[in-house]
Amino acid sequence: MSILINDVADYLEEEGVGTIATNVFCGYLPEDPDACIAVLDTGGSEPDKDIPTKEPTFQIMIRSTNYATGKAKLDSIRSLLHRSSNVNLVTDETYFYFILAIAEGGHLGRDDRGRDLFSINFRARTR
């Protein structure tokens, strides 16, 4: 698990989006609880050979028992993270030159238990 997804999860908790290990998880989306958020590593771009930065990507998965609640959570997270720049979200572990949503994010359908799934992907430049 990367420090980056931990920093993002910590930031979501600090901003009141959820609580780590209760309804915000790093690196996986557990079967329970019904309503939760996962912050997942998704790779990234090739690092610059001359500048000591990284360009990771990450995904936020949201599961909800109610479509409107899940969509509102997705919109809230996008607003918090998209266009963040020149910040340490919580700790000094990861400095973010920027975080940008790759797309608007959206509904993925329902899982086998009828819960709505949403996803949004971000790219960042860090040092």
Reported for the largest beta sheet, the result is: 7 strands, mixed
Portion in strands: 35-45%
Topology order in helix (H) and strand (E) letters = HEEEHEEEE
Q: Looking at the structure, what is the overall shape?
A: elongated
For the residues shown, what is the average pLDDT? 94
Report the top-level CATH class.
Answer: Alpha Beta
Number of helices: 2
Cα-to-Cα separation, first versus last residue = 17 Å
The stretches of 5 or more residues where confidence is low (pLDDT under 50) are none
Number of strands: 7
Describe the structure.
- The protein is an alpha+beta fold.
- The chain has one domain (3-126): STM4215-like (2-Layer Sandwich).
- 21% of the residues lie in helices and 40% in strands.
- It is built from two helices and seven strands.
- Strands 1, 2, 3, 4, 5, 6 and 7 form a seven-stranded mixed sheet that branches.
- A hairpin with a 5-residue loop joins strand 6 and strand 7.
- The chain is elongated.
- The relative contact order is 0.21.
Walk me through the topology.
Blueprint: H1 3-14, E1 24-26, E2 36-45, E3 55-64, H2 67-81, E4 84-88, E5 95-101, E6 106-110, E7 116-126
Parallel strand pairs: 1-2
Antiparallel strand pairs: 2-3, 3-7, 4-5, 5-7, 6-7
Features:
seven-stranded mixed beta sheet; 21% helix; 127 residues; alpha+beta; elongated; STM4215-like
